[in-house]
Specification:
Elements lengths: L6 H13 L7 H12 L12 E5 L7 H4 L5 E5 L4 H8 L6 E4 L15 E5 L8 H11 L5 E5 L9 H8 L2 H7 L4 H28 L17 H13 L8 H10 L2 E6 L7 E6 L9
Parallel strand pairs: 1-2, 1-4, 2-3, 4-5
Antiparallel strand pairs: 5-7, 6-7
């Protein structure tokens, strides 16, 4: 029986992904978002017809770009969003769907050639144990890509102050019914995300470096993506954040090595490889 999940979080994501199913997002924007996360993923080392997993697949927005590159993709999602993923990915015949939690999946240990878990592990009670559950599925030397919310540890103090101002609104909004959440997070997207993103866009066109500005990541994104991320940021009941060093330590403790971090947003996206266990011989 699995205990490493929060039922309210699962319910929240089910509501979120059935409301935002990504069908309105253009293929080009989804692919750009996909490349932002997967820029450090080592496609070239995967074996022919590789078998791997998408842990917390949501609507299947990443799986649609991974599936054509591999042999079999196992999509795992505990919420009702799995039905959205099944619909979005219905034209693919190399995808298996599992409606279950991160540590209760019916896949054999040491069976997967690769795995990824993006935007999930900071929303479960025990992030380290969640990483360990993912790593246990991997074959030795298999790559694992992960995205975990960061503590803004590469940002200046004033940026941190702005972020702390969002904590109380998030705690309030995340406890509201889904329709009210969407209404309020849409207002946030309209009043905050969109103006700051477009300001960054204009400043960049004028020749300024805007990477340090709040929400500059969205300067070339559509308003739909801003709405989705606003709902995700302010509407999820459980959210944790980790520094780059903390993430590295967790990945190492879970059995990964040769860890590298992406040097561009979203932060922090990291890649590691499952260690090869050396047999111990006793006299």
């Amino acid at each position: 029986m699995s205990f490493n999940y929060d039922p309210k979080v699962v319910e929240s994501f089910g509501s979120e992904w059935t409301s935002f199913n990504h069908l309105e997002v253009s293929e080009s924007e989804l692919e750009k978002l996909f490349l932002d996360y997967f820029r450090i993923f080592p496609w070239d080392i995967l074996p022919p017809n590789a078998v791997g997993f998408d842990m917390g697949c949501g609507t299947g927005r990443w799986a649609k770009f991974v599936a054509p590159r591999v042999g079999i993709l196992n999509c795992i999602e505990p919420s009702d969003a799995i039905e959205v993923a099944q619909s979005m990915l219905r034209d693919f015949h190399n995808i298996n769907f599992f409606k279950t939690t991160i540590d209760n999946i019916d896949l054999q240990a040491n069976s997967q050639d690769f795995g990824y878990c993006l935007g999930v592990l900071h929303h479960i009670p025990n992030t380290l144990e969640g990483i360990k559950s993912c790593v246990a599925l991997l074959k030795p030397k298999a790559p694992f890509l992960v995205y975990i919310y960061y503590k803004l540890d590469n940002r200046p103090f004033w940026y941190l102050c702005l972020w702390y101002m969002t904590i109380l609104p998030r705690l309030f909004i995340s406890r509201l019914p889904n329709k009210v959440k969407i209404f309020l997070t849409d207002l946030i997207a309209i009043a905050i995300y969109f103006p700051l993103a477009r300001l960054s866009y204009l400043l960049e066109k004028a020749g300024f470096n805007v990477n340090s500005l709040p929400l500059s990541y969205y300067r070339d994104k559509t308003f739909y993506t801003m709405r989705v991320d606003s709902r995700d940021r302010f509407g999820t009941p459980l959210e944790k954040r980790f520094s780059k060093l903390e993430i590295q330590h967790m990945l190492e403790e879970a059995g990964l090595e040769n860890i590298q971090f992406s040097d561009s947003p979203p932060f922090w996206t990291a890649l590691g490889y499952k260690k090869v266990e050396i047999p111990k011989f006793y006299e």
